[in-house]
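Justification of computing resources. Each target in the renewal requires a structure prediction run like the one illustrated here; the chain below, 277 residues long, is used simply to show the kind of job we budget for.
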Amino acid sequence: MKYMERIIFGGIAVLGLGSVSAAFACSPDGWTSQGDHVVAPSLVGTPVDGVARYSEFCAFSVDGDSSYVQSNHTGDTDTRYIGRFYVYPHPGASGTVDIFIAYSDEGATAQLFKATLDGTDLTFTFPGDTATASVVSGNWNLIEFDYNSTADADTFSYWVNEPWDSDALVYEDGDGDSGTVAMTAGDIAVRAVQLGAPNGGLTGKLNFDAFEAHRTQNVGALLRGDANADESVNIIDYSAVQAEILGTLQAGQPDCNEDGQINILDYGCIQTVILGG
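Resulting structure tokens:
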């Protein structure tokens, strides 16, 4: 499984995007922030709004209306866009909120597709159709989508909380939601994206983390419980979780049980993963 390089930056720090299938390092240069309610970064000892990061060093949260980060893709003509991120709806968060929007122009006025959160329902809206999946409040949720506007495809695929097969590099059919639906986009490239709550409507807080975008293949899930980022889950990860609890930032995914906190409960989760659970 591929892991992106991770670099700590101050201020708003989420993933910059590119037009190839390689992973991208965290960079504030590819993003701008809008609104007064974007909070970053999420670091050990000072988790964002009391909720620890999922895995990246570039988590951020939104609390209130019209707050988001935006990335533009100057001159990009690639008509495929595959994105992945994790979202944590705080308990009590409500409202109908567009949490991700892709546009065909850098001015972010011509919408191509979006993901809208309404309670536990996540609705993808894309040219000609919609699709609905379920998310869990008070838990990190894995979101991935594949906007494929090429002439021989013109499809929109999505995976929400589906298990990831890191050997086959595909999503398995699990307890989550997934599907592929024909759309009518017509060979249009993504030129700008927004993540957060760009259109308002949010009551409460949402956390975001681990955004990554590719152009040719699925991004995939991070390896749950791999706290030290050595691409395996083993007894060494117990020590890595302990180190993070004590205040030393780890390179991998220490929030094994995905409950928004990094604590002793993650030890039991790592044991379950090691035993094949």
